[in-house]
Write a structure and sequence with these properties.
By secondary structure, the protein is α+β, with helices and mostly antiparallel strands. It is built from 9 helices and 8 strands. The protein folds into 2 domains: about 1-140 and about 270-365, no CATH class; about 145-240, no CATH class.
Amino acid sequence: MVLKRYVLKTFLSFYLISAGGFIGLFLIGDFFDRVDEFINKDTPLVDIGLYYLYKIPFILFYIAPLAVLLATVLAISTLAKSNEIIAMKACGVSITRITLPIIGVSLVIALLVIANSEFIAPTTSQRMNHIFYVQVRGGTSYKKIETNKIWYKSKTGAIWNIDNYDSDNLTLNQVSIFITNNNRFIEKRIDAKKAVWINQQWKFMEGTIRTFDQAGLKNTEFFENRLFVFPEIPSNFITYRRRPEEMSLKYMYEEILEQQSEGKDVTKKWLDLNYRLSYPFIGVVLALIGIPLSLRSSRQGGLLFSIAVNLAIGVAFSFFYALCVSLGRVGTFDPVFATWGPIALFTSIGFYLLLTLDSEKPLPFFE
């Protein structure tokens, strides 16, 4: 128990230093990127301070796995350099038992990052964006406007399908309107290349009007320009959506279910949700791989060599993970496989390297 506490204390001290360093570097880089805008807008120092304070939970999501890797390398290399690991092994303590606190804490860190993404980061990100987009830039809102693939159901029962909405020019591009009767039967469909809001009316351009009865298509009429009076006005088609960093996991899941019920393709949204859930566990994977690599590399070189080897493996895993996510985004891989597959694969490799660290046989269970 004393040895576990000692290893745990060593790892946590290095993790706090690593995480603090990465957060500091991130904030400094972001500050120099935005400092001109802060100065030009005469932003109060209090607002700048609050902006970066609210940004920390957002940063923690991305730097946690790398901080776990660096802390693992530093902790293992330090213990190995001072021959403390050899002393522990001489007392009959296996490598697995020595490093179990590191693996356990890396798992706890991953769960805390997920909790941060659910309960803390969405709120702080909203406040951060409000400061930057409203107080600094002087905008009316910090939320994104949904401009593509809009579906809108009118109070009259008509259904609007808009490919793109230009809110600046009050223009609907590639618009279709389905007009239904009381029995929800589509009795008329209006299609147009463009619809422009002019004099409190919609001017449709280059379109068709199709009428239907119970037998099917009844009549088709083509037009170049035509004015229509609908109760809908441009503001009805403005849909605000939260920025990705402002979405909690629960919000993302409920949005997926809602859009799924509307018949929309939610493959990318499932991928984004699984990415948010799986990414924090990269730290566990890097810890599992970092422990045996740190022990092996510390025997052949110094601390810098050990750090270089582990960072190279970390970069290779990150590239492989990003590649799988990209393939999932284009539909080649299933969202679950694209995000959790690399983690499962490298976790298996990490356990194998760890369990065979002191064995000359491929599997130490049969010794």
